[in-house]
Amino acid sequence: MGLNRFSLPVVVVMMINAMLLSQGCLEEERIALLQIKTSLNLTSSPLLSWGKDALCCSWEGVTCSNSTTTRRVVEIHLYYTRDWSMGDWYLNASIFLPFQELKVLDLGANRIACCVANEGFERLSRLAKLEVLYLSLNNFNNSILSSMKGLSSLKYLNLDFNQLQGSIDTKGT
Ligand SMILES: *[C@@H]1O[C@H](CO)[C@@H](O)[C@H](O)[C@H]1NC(C)=O
Ligand SMILES: *[C@@H]1O[C@H](CO)[C@@H](O)[C@H](O)[C@H]1NC(C)=O
Ligand SMILES: *[C@@H]1O[C@H](CO)[C@@H](O)[C@H](O)[C@H]1NC(C)=O
Ligand SMILES: *[C@@H]1O[C@H](CO)[C@@H](O)[C@H](O)[C@H]1NC(C)=O
After folding, report:
1. Per-residue pLDDT reduced to its tens digit, 48-90
2. What's the domain range around 150?
3. Where is the Leucine-rich repeat-containing N-terminal plant-type domain (predicted)?
4. Count: domains in the chain
5. Could you count the other beta carbons within 10 Å of the beta carbon of residue 139?
6. Which domain CATH number covers 144?
7. What beta strand segments (E) does 29-169 contain?
8. Which of 36, 37, 39 to mutate for ligand 1's pocket (most ligand atoms within 8 Å of CB)?
9. Which residue, 32, 143, 161, 169, could crosslink 98 as a Cys pair with Cβ 3.0–4.6 Å?
């Protein structure tokens, strides 16, 4: 049989489709990633390249599931993405709620002091798969601990190099 002269473009289109499917994430998640990028007020960072293409699973710091259907964002790494000269960051944790399959969130080294009123880390209790949270090298104080109580899927929390004081009771957290 052999390839007829119409096959090659068809194969190319199929390959491009497969590539887009394999590197794209859910539309809602792509929009949320771009909102995060905007809210960071970046001037220089690898994240500035987010949005240059639609292939959000290949964006710097983003990892998706290996699903054969729609790939979902499972890891977001924002370590040291923010310019510290902008002062403390009062974050709105709800910006991460579109990522319902999220397992790992790294917000280390961003000078986060905590949160916008009523938009703290207790919001992340709605992320049922969140297992790992890196918050090292920020400005959190002891008040962050109470907002972690509802995060029932959490297995690892790193709060090294913050402003926590005294002995910390980790029972029930
Ligand atoms: C970006 O700028 C806005 C407006 O000044 C501010 O509310 C917000 O906290 C800033 N974002 C970060 C990550 O500092
Ligand atoms: C997806 O599969 C690749 C190759 O097998 C593997 O290296 C990677 O860790 C997997 N990613 C996830 C999120 O499971
Ligand atoms: C926090 O972010 C969510 C999701 O983007 C938004 O709906 C909400 O209005 C924000 N809250 C504040 C206080 O800015
Ligand atoms: C802890 O941080 C929160 C949020 O930034 C702030 O409102 C509170 O005053 C701080 N508490 C202490 C004891 O510094």
Report:
1. 999 999 899 999 999 999 877 788 999 999 999 998 899 999 9
2. 7-158
3. 27-65
4. 1
5. 16
6. 3.80.10.10
7. 62-64, 73-77, 89-91, 104-106, 112-115, 132-134, 156-158
8. 39
9. 32
